[in-house]
Amino acid sequence: MVVGGKIIKKLVCIFLAILFITSLVACNDSSGNTDNNTGGNDGSGNTTDAGESGNNTNTPPSDNTAASPDTSPSDEPDPNDAAPGAGGGNESTSPDTGPSTPSTSSPTPPIDTPTPPSPPETPTPPSPPETPTPGNGGDSGENGENGSNAGENGGGTGLSGAPADILSSLVDSLNAAGLQMPMSFPPTPVSAQDSQNAIGLSEADFNNYVSAAAQSIAAIGTFAHQIVIIQGVDDNAAAQIKKLVSGSGGYDSQKWICVFPEKTVAIDAGPYVLLVAANRDVVDAAVELFKTAAGNAGEAVTFYEGI
Questions:
Q1: Are 146 and 140 in contact (CB under 8 A)?
Q2: How far apart are CA 68 and CA 41, in angstroms?
Q3: pTM passes above 0.85
Q4: pLDDT of 75 above 90
Q5: Which strands make up the sheet holding 263-269, listed edge to edge?
Q6: Shortest CA distance to 189 belongs to which of 220, 231, 217, 147?
């Protein structure tokens, strides 16, 4: 009984082992068939088939077999992207980036070029007074006394106007030149009654040739200084006046007390005559100013010179 039980146990074990092996083989066959049915192409173009022995052994691809193409899915297109020109797709619009940020740089203000200040004007020094040229005057007063107007004939000279006006301008020019002159009276008229002592003309000659006359003399008798402008009735009369005052019995250059002028000169220009007795520099300057104002003067006659 014991031996028979052991034999039965062995048979049962053998049966179970066979059954187990059979089950494993069946599972392997079903797995191989499933791979062959779903695999199809093994990559070399040949259909794999299960072996007769039931082994699920796949033949490896040969070296000449091309690599299987990459079956990984490509990037899917964005459904919102439409092909160009497609009617049914959504229009491609740039994303709204919002309002542009205003520039923070401040505008450059206009540059004003400063105007350089003008240099100060140089003051023009005053020019020496010119010899006045008023219009022609009228006749002299009765008895040869000076009138306020000059004669009508201006002659061929640049001088015109009353002798007192011409004399005032001449004295101003001498003062402006810085010449040393004594304090003098302003221009005063010369009459026929005192013409002999004043200018060396007799009363008769004064009445015949003189239209008007004015003189400027030193205020103090100890200074030998006298300037006279005489206006004749015409140019010929002026030439005769110059001849009379500069000749013998004419103007007395030594009439002052204890003093004498350095020089005495008479010169004519048109109807006018300048008679001047003073220091040499004053006489020379007065003659030049008279000639410049006249523009056309006669010969200057020097008939006295002191020691």
A1: yes
A2: 10
A3: no
A4: no
A5: 188-189, 210-217, 226-232, 272-278, 263-269, 301-305
A6: 147
Residue 67 tokens read as 């690599």
Please report the pLDDT score of residue 156 as a whole number. 63
* Nearest Cα to Cα of residue 239 among 259, 209, 204: 209
| SS3 assignment, position 304 | strand
Sign of CA dihedral 130, 227, 221, 147: negative
8 Å CB contact between 33 and 47: no
Angstrom distance (rounded) from CA 228 to CA 189 = 10
Tell me the backbone φ, ψ of residue 302, rounded to 5 degrees: -95, 115
Contact 135, 161 (CB under 8 A): yes
CA dist list (Å): 147 to 69, 210, 216, 239, 248 = 144, 11, 17, 21, 28
Q: How confident is the model at residue 161 (pLDDT cuts 50, 70, 90)?
A: very high
pLDDT at 199: 96
Q: 45 pLDDT exceeds 80?
A: no
d(CA 233, CA 188): 19
One-letter amino acid identity for 33?
Answer: N
> Residue 233 is which amino acid?
V
Q: Map tokens 């000639």 to a residue.
A: 291
Identify whether the C-beta of residue 166 lies closer than 8 Å to the C-beta of residue 174.
no
pLDDT of residue 10: 81
Residue type, 262: E
pLDDT for 168-198, tens place per residue?
A: 999 999 999 988 788 889 999 999 999 999 9
142-305 topology per CATH: Protein Transport Mog1p; Chain A (3.40.1000)
What's the helix, strand, coil split of the chain in %, to 5? 30, 15, 55
Residue range 86-95, pLDDT digits in tens:
444 444 444 4
Map tokens 């039931």 to a residue.
54
